[in-house]
Specification:
alpha+beta, Chemotaxis protein chec, seven-stranded antiparallel sheet, 3 helices, about 35% helix, about 25% strand, disordered N terminus
């Protein structure tokens, strides 16, 4: 079976991230046209994938977004969340969004594999497919870069 998509546009990437947030953490988010009013991203997670295309998904988030995400997943108040828990939650979201991306790229006959999510930034740049989400007043950027494997 052929892949359902050979290109991810920013709207599709945003939809995948929004669906993942709603499904796993009950966090509401919307695409953000003007992100200047959102806090800066200072927490980063990435996950690589390989298969018919090789690439990665990176999440750039405000620290408060990561805390709110962890609090929602764990069912507690954001003030109770440590930096480690916030980072673990962002890595888990990278894993979930990465899985959604490879499914979108590979279709029902998905022949991709995901690596392990890691903290930190990769080589995201302006040639990536990217979107900025406003998640209840906090920043979440989703970057995806990939190229067909040789």
């Amino acid at each position: 079976m052929e892949p359902t998509s050979t290109h991810l546009d920013p709207d599709t990437l945003a939809r995948l991230a929004i669906d993942a947030l709603e499904r796993t953490a009950f966090v509401l988010a919307d695409p953000c046209g003007d992100s200047t009013n959102l806090p800066a991203a200072d927490t980063f997670a990435r996950i690589g994938f390989s298969g018919p295309s090789n690439g990665s998904v990176e999440l750039h988030a405000s620290r408060a977004f990561a805390r709110n995400l962890a609090a929602s997943i764990l069912g507690c108040d954001a003030s109770e969340i440590s930096d480690v828990q916030a980072e673990e939650a962002l890595r888990e979201l990278a894993n979930i969004v990465g899985g959604s991306v490879i499914t979108a790229l590979g279709g029902s006959d998905c022949r991709f594999s995901l690596g392990l999510p890691k903290l930190g930034r990769g080589s995201a740049d302006e040639t990536d497919t990217a979107c900025v989400l406003d998640a209840e007043g906090e920043r979440l950027e989703v970057h995806c870069q990939y190229a067909r494997a040789a």
